[in-house]
Amino acid sequence: MNTEALNRIVAEVGVTSRQIAAVEKLLADGSTVPFIARYRKEAHGNLDEVAIGKIKDRLEYYAELEARKETILKSIDEQGKLTDELRGKIADCWQKSALEDLYQPYKPKRRTRAQIAKEKGFEPLADAIWSGDAFEGSDEDLQFARDILAERIADMAEVRGLVRQAFATKGVVKSEVASPKPTEPTKFEQYYEFEEPIASIPSHRYLAIRRGQKEGVLWVKLALDSAPVIEDMMTLIDKARGIASKSGDAATEQIEIAAEDAYKRLLAPSCEIDVTVEKKMSADRAAVEVFAENLRHLLLASPLGEKAVLAIDPGIRTGCKVAMMDATGKYLGKTVIFPQQKPEESAKAIAMIVNKYRPEAVAIGNGTAGRETETFVRQTLQRLKAQHPEIPTPIVVSVSEAGASVYSASEIARKEFPDLDLTVRGAISIGRRLQDPLAELVKVDPKAIGVGQYQHDVHQPLLGAKLDEVVVSCVNGVGVELNTASAPLLERVSGVSPSLAKSIVEWRNENGKFRSREDLKKVKGLGAKAFEQCAGFLRIRGAANPLDSSAVHPERYALVARMAADVGMSVSELVGNSLAAKKIDVRRYITDDVGEPTLKDIVAELVKPGRDPRAVFEPPKFRDDVTKIEDVKEGMKLEGIVTNVTAFGAFVDIGVHQDGLVHLSELSDNFVTDPASVVKAGDRLQVTVIGVDRARGRISLSAKTRPTAVAPASSGGSAASGRGRTQSRRTSFAPASGSGFSCNPFANL
Length: 749
Fold this sequence. Notes:
Elements: H1 3-14, H2 17-28, H3 33-39, H4 41-44, H5 49-78, H6 84-91, H7 96-103, H8 113-119, H9 123-131, H10 139-154, H11 157-170, E1 172-177, E2 193-197, H12 203-214, E3 218-223, H13 226-241, H14 250-299, E4 309-313, E5 320-325, E6 331-337, H15 343-357, E7 361-365, H16 370-387, E8 395-399, H17 404-408, H18 411-416, H19 422-435, H20 437-441, H21 460-478, E9 480-481, H22 487-490, H23 498-511, H24 528-534, E10 538-539, H25 557-566, H26 571-574, H27 578-582, H28 596-607, E11 621-623, E12 637-646, E13 649-653, E14 660-663, E15 684-693, E16 698-702, E17 717-720
Helix pairs in contact: 2-5, 7-11, 8-10, 9-10, 9-14, 10-14, 11-13, 11-14, 12-14, 13-14, 14-21, 15-16
């Protein structure tokens, strides 16, 4: 790598050149970021995934820059215009925009006014004016000469950089309502007469304005006072000419006219585009980081674990689709219930399923009629418990449906359940999301989950790459059970391609369970490199070698055997024996290729082998008397779940289908600039209702400490694990009471 590029990465990432060289070599050898971070700590000095990812990004940036330099040098050389001075300037250029400025005069151009003027023979006149020599010409002649001069000025890298910098630092984003003005209220009304410096406008506000522009509601412009910019341009022009401008001088007059033309016609339009594009990309990057952070917390949400689940996808007209999964997520059967139309039959169906399969949880989608279905199921279970106390009562959990419909119609779902209706697939997905959010959500395009800000407006390749990076990081951080993982989950494992994931599943189907990690080598296409990359992240529960269910890499099994022998135990006896493992002196095992960081990781695994880093599942509680926006009153104190964190605040699910917003200013009693520093997606949060706009479906919340407000007493709570923000038509229904249950639908269970 170029020494200057290396030094720049050192400064940008805050690491040493040795660490960068180590990461570069490992990446070149085909290692993945998760593998490098987990199993090659000694090589790179114990960097985390974030730092390694930044090094990877910068290495790619400078590699692309060097390739572009080569292309530009070749192009200019072929034109016979490459000088040693220009070659040096290009070599010393480390920004893509500045590099393109240097190339600007040599880029193939369409037929311009300057080229036409040159063809007509006016270049000598332009040169005379530029040099300050005596010249003569008609107004038309001088116009042709100025066309040449304007292009010459616009092609000066220093001038173009000056104008671009002026737009970036002094430009003002101005937005106005487009004509004709919308007759109905829009979400862009605050931007109908708005202006803010582009240098300080927050990313979320800029993206909102851009969306308003895209939807035809707003007219947007980046404004800049041109007079001081043109004055600064003249200073650079004088330097390039080697002649000081003189008031009243004929040549100076022509140069000034040409400079103003260059600014207005050639520089301002292109530089405005450059700056707005860069601002958009900067805002995109900020939005993508927000989305990525939210997605990480969503994927790492607490799993219910290996427990049987009854899943319900609520519906009114077409009924509620019900699906039963065993503790491993295996689909057992389905039915449809109509709580509104046939409450008794529906209650009996739920009771019979609970009695037969003994699920430990009921997962209910949070879409249309979700809260009503919760109430129905809860009352049904209460009646069942009263009449059959010997039947264990499952917990009732509301599960976000975001992206479930995308999964249901996907090729993955069709392959998993070719004979099932889309809605039943959706119910299964809801149930599995509760059991293991990570394993199920990897089947859904992350963009469809909806936990970001303006995710449909940002640069999609940038968003896709970042979200894929997050998914891979989460999957490898948690580890994957080899004998139950789906192909979509396996292909996120370090070193496992989609085709290899398919081969692993096919091998498992043909040969039965993997008995050891060594069996992986029998899979077609899984060579030594792939095994090295993936083995440590794949778990085999119940394997003969207990290390196969841990994060200890097979390349360190012999080392663990030495440790076990040194403490007088077998490997099986040592694994999980925290007292013995904690007494191991890791310094005794340090070698040239195994250092203290890796040894500490190994001991941690021996203490708690295969430990899931995710928190223990603990459902929060919603108030039963608050199920729709009409129930929400100012002053209420509620418990909610943070569903989305943005740059301007956090959205919180309080159980009414429409998430409330805790604005940045209401997140904490202390001053907050970064919401992510206060809350994360999935957090439980105590909030106070400070505003309700029922017409627009908006709820304003505060997380600040406030005096206790008078509000209707809670009649209890229902468990939940997060829900989306879709507003839907509300309907009330519940199990029949009084005479409706006189037939005792549970009597014959």
